[in-house]
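@channel sequence for tomorrow's demo:
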Amino acid sequence: MAYCYLSAGSGSLGPLWSQDSTSTLVVDTNTNSGYIYVYNDAYSYQTAQNYMSFFEVPFSGSQVTLTLYPMTYAILVYNSNGVMVGEAMLVYLKVRTL
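structure tokens (generated this afternoon):
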């Protein structure tokens, strides 16, 4: 089991995320380089636009690998010229095995 911990600030440390609660998504962008924007779909596009720099993931090569926590995501792909070349909505629910 992998954990990530925060170390700055006062107080005690605790797990930031656990590998058991995340999954990996590989996005084939069909463009060599650009930016992929991934944000919680509960926010409108207009709201997300105000904070796009927080959601911006630059890439080179046609694939982007993301580690995601269960929720619904909007995914926008822009090429290096700033032209949107793809969009998707991902409904990601973690299935728990009993």
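heads up for whoever presents: The longest strand covers residues 71-79.
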